[in-house]
Automatic annotation (TrEMBL):
Native organism taxonomy: Eukaryota, Metazoa, Spiralia, Gnathifera, Rotifera
Protein source organism: Adineta steineri
SUPFAM superfamilies: Proteasome activator
Stated name of the protein: Proteasome activator PA28 C-terminal domain-containing protein
Residue span(s) of domain Proteasome activator PA28 C-terminal: 81-205
Domain of life: Eukaryota
GO cellular component, one term: proteasome activator complex
Amino acid sequence: MSHKRIKIPGAEGYSELLNALEHDGKNIEYITIETIEKINQMLDNDLFNRTNLDSIQSFASKSVVNIPTLNDNNDTYDLVIKCNERLEILVEHVKHEEFLFIENAEKICGLIDLNVMYNNRINYETQLLWKNEIIEMQGQISSNHMDILNYYRNRSEIASNILKEPRISDYWEQLIEIDEDFFFKLRTILFNLRLFHLRLFRIVYNWIHPSK
């Protein structure tokens, strides 16, 4: 069985690779500013604005529907619990910003591990503090993502209760309440992401402009 040989770059190739990584890392200075502005717009637009809460409530109350089914040539109806389509749109926006932060944070951690920032006379102790700060933010984002997963699990449990006992109105109210709560949680996650991007910008800025 033959194996492909991996070409290890020499000193010149390694230097070119480090320069490429450094250039990529410095681009994060502009990416974070653009992302912060984008998040500001998202928090102010119709999707994440508090005035959108009425739409969230409306979608929640309409998520329990009767779906016609054909059984032995007789029309019957099954209760179906639909997802809150309005919230699904917000989740996709939040997950995109989470992914963007994680990707950029990993790039900066990689530069620290390779000690590329030492070229700007940033001592390793400072770099280590920056890396610990980034890891802390990544941990918070992982926790936020678990909040999203917990929402789906809890909503599924409430939906199951509705299907089992559709005459108990409290279950229906719980469905609306959990969607309302999740809307505000998504806003909070977005606020945190804006802060995290700002903190990441500060780290990159202090690396690129150490004299300032």
